[in-house]
């Protein structure tokens, strides 16, 4: 057994999340964490909503609310969506907690103490008519990289690149249209080039990473520059240095505070579970492993910047939290598109998690993401393919096997029948299913979820073939042989259900119950209303008890367990949903 940190990308709290987001970070990290727990590892899965930065402030301004009111709203929406998907976070929190502020300031101060944060004079914008500083969000201009004409002072929303206000072509104030004046101002930078050798040496020791992630990371290290970690903005974590602490116009840059969330959430989890030092087992034990899940646009933060922060805090001078582990692996996914187009809320090429879950089951989406998601290539979500996979694979393959084996046993025996003497075919099938614990488990441990679910469904196909070949419905005259065939089939269903539990936890719990099982088979997260440990404000978190539930091993079914006629576990989708959904996209 080992300790495994599952560090999941932090969704930005400026709106509800769409299925592209959860395909990249949410579902894959949950499948991995569920499997690792079932296999006996001690998993700590943490994340939360990312709530600072200019885009939140801009949107709050536009809606006439405070940034805090805005993030309160979307934190709750996102918590509910992730809960609906059954994502088993040990803690899903947020970046506006008192705990997070303390941890961010501690890391900033530690890096500063170790000499890795440098003050630099840069050009900042002021309003010529008032002489006051113009925060980044009030400056707009043409992006020097892609030519988009409404890029903001810190970021272009079109190409996603981070910018400085003085890089904008034709900069203008969004308040009154005047051209800002640029004057010298001081900001803090993280000295990334100081870590280049250590980062390269660390990457040399990495095994099993997806090749594109490793190659991309090495290219980044070849061209490292100091990176700004403070901003002209009022919404964010204050800078914890003398003479800066009380400045209302300077804040820590949102990306710097968000990556520290993995650590602060682990500390918050430990504080909430009554053992405030417990987080250290995942962050300081050299045997502990840490896996980071994200979309490919965030690789730089996880394979270069976050490791630099961890290295810089860990030495040369010891800091109060102590030295911290580097990631074991950065697990990055590619992009999901929708009907051939990039997801876009403004262009309405989007389906939000909430809307999806109102009309379809969470496991239908989880299945699609596992089998056809953007694991190592950009992939396209289409409604017709979603329907086809759901109907032909989930319903006709797995659902049908569950339904016909349990209903036939319920009808003819009212219970799990006893097995008589087994044939070579019976034994071969049971052996094939048991081999799945090794083959599917190996793939899951290496983040090859598409291959893992394909292998699990191949085994389901073998069980279906066995069932058709043995045709128990033709054995009315030979009840003993019928009982043996159904016993073998139900044993195979029991074990296939375990193989599919990381992917389909809601269905797995139901199938467990249809087989006469009681108690928790697949544990689920709960939404808990908690109080901030430092300032008393209340907010919802996801937590759960995941020590219960089935293990990654075959479990013998018991003859005599009562069975009732099942209702279908998965829903067949009518052809009309495709046109209805496409019409929604275009409306
Ligand atoms: Zn741009």
Q: Please give the number of β-strands.
A: 17
- N- and C-termini, Cα separation: 52 Å
- Average pLDDT confidence is 95
Task: Please give the count of helices.
Answer: 18
**Sheet having the most strands:** 5 strands, parallel
Ligand types: zinc ion
- Evaluate the radius of gyration: 27 Å
Tell me roughly what share of residues is in helical segments: 40-55%
Beta strand %: 5-15%
Instruction: Find the structural class using helix and strand composition.
Output: alpha/beta
Low-confidence spans: none
Overall, the morphology is elongated
Strand order within the widest beta sheet: 3-2-1-12-13
Describe this structure in words.
- This protein has 587 residues and is an alpha/beta fold.
- It has 18 helices and 17 strands.
- A hairpin with an 8-residue loop joins strand 5 (139-142) and strand 6.
- The radius of gyration is 27 Å and the shape is elongated.
- The chain starts with a strand and ends with a helix.
- The mean pLDDT is 95.
Features:
587 residues; binds zinc ion; five-stranded parallel sheet; three-stranded antiparallel sheet; alpha/beta
In short:
The protein has helices at residues 19-38, 54-63, 67-84, 98-113, 196-204, 211-222, 254-259, 261-272, 280-283, 299-314, 353-359, 362-372, 383-412, 424-445, 449-470, 479-500, 505-514, 576-586, and strands spanning 3-8, 42-49, 91-94, 117-126, 139-142, 151-152, 169-173, 181-190, 227-228, 230-232, 250-252, 289-295, 329-333, 336-338, 379-381, 526-531, 538-543. It has 587 residues and is of the alpha/beta class. Strands 3-2-1-12-13 form a 5-stranded parallel β-sheet, sandwiched between helices. Strands 4-8-9 form a 3-stranded antiparallel β-sheet. A 3-stranded antiparallel β-sheet has the order 6-5-7, with no helix packed on it.
């Amino acid at each position: 057994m080992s300790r495994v940190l599952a560090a999941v990308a932090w969704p930005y709290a400026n709106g509800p999340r769409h299925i592209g987001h959860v395909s990249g970070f949410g579902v894959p990290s949950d499948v991995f964490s569920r499997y690792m727990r079932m296999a006996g590892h001690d998993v700590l899965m943490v994340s939360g909503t990312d709530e600072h930065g200019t885009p939140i402030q801009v949107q709050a301004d536009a809606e006439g609310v405070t940034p805090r009111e805005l993030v309160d709203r979307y934190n709750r929406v996102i918590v509910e969506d992730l809960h609906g998907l059954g994502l088993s976070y040990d803690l899903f929190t947020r970046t506006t907690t008192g705990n997070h502020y303390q941890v961010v300031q501690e890391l900033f101060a530690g890096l500063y103490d170790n000499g890795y944060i440098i003050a630099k004079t840069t050009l900042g914008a002021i309003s010529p008519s008032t002489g006051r500083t113009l925060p980044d969000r009030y400056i707009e201009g043409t992006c020097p990289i892609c030519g988009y004409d409404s890029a903001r002072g810190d970021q272009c929303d079109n190409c996603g690149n981070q910018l400085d206000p003085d890089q904008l072509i034709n900069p203008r104030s969004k308040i009154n249209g005047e051209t800002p004046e640029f004057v010298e101002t001081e900001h803090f930078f993280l000295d990334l080039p100081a870590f280049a050798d250590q980062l390269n040496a660390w990457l040399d020791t990495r095994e099993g990473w997806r090749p594109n992630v490793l190659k991309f990371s090495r290219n980044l290290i070849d061209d490292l520059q100091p990176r700004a970690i403070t901003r002209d903005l009022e919404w964010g974590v204050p800078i914890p240095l003398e003479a800066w602490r009380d400045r209302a116009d300077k804040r820590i840059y949102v990306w710097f505070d968000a990556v520290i969330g993995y650590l602060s959430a682990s500390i918050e989890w430990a504080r909430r579970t009554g053992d405030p030092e417990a987080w250290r087992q995942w962050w300081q034990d050299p045997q502990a492993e840490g896996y980071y899940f994200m979309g490919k646009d965030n690789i730089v933060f996880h394979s270069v910047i976050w490791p630099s922060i961890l290295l810089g805090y860990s030495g040369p001078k010891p800091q109060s939290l102590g030295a911290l582990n580097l990631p074991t692996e950065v697990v990055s996914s590619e992009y999901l598109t929708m009907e051939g187009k990039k997801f876009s809320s403004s262009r309405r090429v989007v389906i939000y998690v909430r809307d999806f879950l109102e009309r379809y089951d969470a496991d239908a989406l989880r299945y699609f993401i596992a089998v056809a998601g953007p694991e190592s290539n950009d992939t396209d979500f289409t409604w017709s393919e979603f329907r086809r996979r759901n109907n032909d694979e989930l319903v006709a393959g797995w659902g049908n096997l569950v339904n016909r084996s349990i209903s036939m046993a319920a009808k003819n025996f009212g219970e799990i029948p006893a097995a008589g003497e087994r044939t070579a075919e019976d034994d071969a099938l049971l052996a094939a299913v048991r081999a799945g614990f090794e083959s599917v488990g190996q793939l899951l441990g290496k983040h090859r979820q598409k291959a893992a679910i394909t292998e699990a469904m191949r085994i389901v196909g073998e069980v279906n073939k066995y069932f058709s070949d043995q045709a128990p419905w033709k054995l009315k005259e030979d009840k003993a042989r019928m009982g043996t065939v159904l016993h073998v089939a139900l044993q195979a269903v029991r074990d296939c259900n375990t193989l599919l539990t990381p992917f389909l936890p809601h269905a797995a719990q139901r199938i467990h119950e249809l087989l006469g099982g009681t108690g928790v088979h697949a544990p689920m997260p709960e939404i808990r209303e908690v109080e901030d440990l430092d300032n008393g404000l209340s907010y919802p978190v996801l937590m759960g008890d995941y020590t219960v539930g089935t293990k990654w091993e075959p479990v013998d079914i018991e003859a005599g367990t009562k069975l009732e006629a099942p209702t279908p576990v998965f829903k067949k989708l009518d052809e009309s949903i495709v046109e209805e959904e496409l019409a929604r996209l275009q409306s």
